[in-house]
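Blinded run. Sample ID left blank on purpose so nobody reads anything into the name before looking at the predicted structure. Input follows.
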Amino acid sequence: MLKDKKILLIISGGIAAYKTLELIRLIRKNNGTVQCILTEGGSQFVTPLSISSLSGHKVYSELWSLNDESEMGHIRLSRGSDLIVVAPASADIMAKMAHGLANDLASTTLLASDKPVLLAPGMNPEMWRNPATQTNTDTLKQRGVMFTGPNDGEMACGETGLGRMSEPEEIFTAITDFFFEKPLKGYSALVTSGPTYEPLDPVRFLGNRSSGKQGYAIAKALRNAGADVTLVTGPTNLPDPQGVRITSIQTANDMLEACTNALPVNIAICAAAVSDWCVDAPQMQKIKKTDDSSVPKLHLKQTPDILKAISTHSKNRPQLVIGFAAETQDLENNAKAKLKKKGCDWIIANEVGIDANGIEKTFGSEENQIHFITQDQNEKWDRASKDSIARKLVQQIINHMDKNNGS
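Blinded prediction complete.
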């Protein structure tokens, strides 16, 4: 995503400096180049060794380093990047920028730069609200400096309010927003993910092994393409993706209600592994094991068909509806039959279950292999990471929207 893009990351003082290590990892993971300046304050929270290990480059700190300044290091650093990111942007470094001060390497580099700058403020809420900081913020915005955050929440000092630095994923999204057009900007998308848990009693449930990883990856890829994303997810152990509206559910009925409430949307992707059955009357108390070894009888009924409900919605059917088919045998024929039966536009078919080596093929795995099936198309995609599958699927969606909306 960031191939050939060069980013200069300035890490100033603040407890949020530790989050920049994850930001560096995200930039490198997406093939970007990142060089770092660490201020004296920043070095109180992260070490040059940690930064250089992740970035793959030397960390710069001293303005008067003879080796660097013999090459006019602050000029070279400021001119050799495509974007300068300051994270966390402390009240101090923002004040220096606003007033043109240059008494260390970071502030000198910023003053000498002709490159665009993105700030991710991070500071105590009172510092952020202070009129001096707000005046400096307004001044910098008037000069074209870009901002992401700050966020509202609990601070390391124990206070709560506006001042938390944006999460690494949010800053990374702001970086990609700067470099790339957002082809799905203006589109809304609904993604379902994870399993559903259908209660038998207050302790037990019917469920499956779905981890939610593929659905989460799709939600993030849609977000990165500019879509306004709602993620309706069953129980998972995954961190919430930033910049995505999330509704957590337990049962298929919960998921149907959440999806219906999310309509209308332009795009719906039903990646959740919804349980096909639930008990018709869950017990209010735990079902106890008896001494005579008898087994309780469960009376099952079908859960609502969420994909079909969205595909055949009379008023708010999305422009594009995509379903998933998890199969253990006869993959293509079962997927094609599901495409016809559900009334959706595309089916993403993947084989689930345990392989010959005792390893789960899809559920819980970091990789997936799918068949991309439409009314007139059937492609088998190479096995790849779920993030890669998500990006490729979103590109198909972009192409479809361009074609059908006359772009």
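Unblinding after everyone has recorded impressions. Residues 262 and 272 are 16 Å apart (CA to CA).
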